Amino acid sequence: MDQASGLNRNGKTSRVKVIAVASGKGGVGKTNTVINLATSLAGFGDRVMVLDADLGLGNLDVMLGLAPEYNLKHLFSGEKELSEILVEGPRKIRIIPAASGIQEVTRSGTREQQVLMEQLSAYEDELDFLLIDAAAGISDMVTGFVRAADAALVVATPEPTSMTDAYALMKVLCNRYGEKKFYLLLNQVADENEARQIYGQLSRVGEKFLDITLIFLGYIPKDASIPRAVRRQQAVVEMEPQAPAAQAYVELARRLRRLPLNDKSGGLHYFWQRLTGAG
Ligand SMILES: Nc1ncnc2c1ncn2[C@@H]1O[C@H](COP(=O)(O)OP(=O)(O)O)[C@@H](O)[C@H]1O
Ligand SMILES: [Mg+2]
């Protein structure tokens, strides 16, 4: 892999796009977004890995009816390799299950981070996307992943608390770390009008007070198919592909695939450098 150009041995661009899915407030739909986005991307033929980085409350595996025997805890303790803790989700997406009760793994230079990233880099040529389900809020762990990713996808709902918390998250990332660009996904909205209106409000205050650019990536309607899929522990895009929320996720995946995401240098190697503050 020629890291500078992003070309692999065959001269093809092999560049893992790392997307961190974050939110100010919990319960806004991050995990559902990661699951359905990953499954939709796989439906387009992309090779996708998902990292459940919500180390306190990770439940991505549960939402897919998976019961992984091992998780990040076993990787960090050295008991298992990444290949041994990976589980397969719908359409062969590869999932790294979260460990509960581990805090602050992404502090600069921690051994845990190093273990994870070293083993992830072995997948450099095998992946098109790495989606990270980050925890809610502004812990070091969340900000670390968001800063290191190629794109920060902020999920918010029309609830005022979700909007203010999304703004607070972007403010911290901007003021502390100079992050200037965010992608917004509005979830649980009534229609596109409502989504555009909320986007307008958030992007106006973001531009005015933080000088950030907020890009509208799309919206997912409030749809009873989502809680139904959660209860049946399936991805809605597989369970009810005709449901409005499912179609919106496929459209979101289509848009995400078209994003250039060239602002930061590419690949897992650079992700790792940025995560540790070396790059
Ligand atoms: N578009 C939607 N329409 C209806 N309900 C939704 C939608 N998105 C999420 N939900 C509900 O919100 C709950 C929380 O979603 P989840 O993805 O677990 O949020 P987070 O990961 O941000 O905590 C889900 O269990 C689901 O019932
Ligand atoms: Mg979640």
List keywords for this structure.
about 280 residues, alpha/beta, Rossmann fold, eight-stranded mixed sheet, 12 helices, disordered N terminus, binds adenosine-5'-diphosphate, binds magnesium ion
Model description:
With 279 residues, the protein is of the alpha/beta class. The protein has one domain (17-272): Rossmann fold, CATH 3.40.50.300. 42% of the residues lie in helices and 17% in strands. The chain has twelve helices and eight strands. Strands 3-4-2-5-1-6-7-8 form an eight-stranded mixed sheet, sandwiched between helices. Strand 3 and strand 4 form a beta hairpin. Helix 1 crosses helix 11 (244-258), helix 5 runs antiparallel to helix 12 and helix 6 runs antiparallel to helix 12 (268-275). It is globular and about 50 Å long. The two termini are 18 Å apart. The structure holds adenosine-5'-diphosphate (ADP) and magnesium ion. Magnesium ion (MG) is lined by residues 30-31, 54, 59, 133.
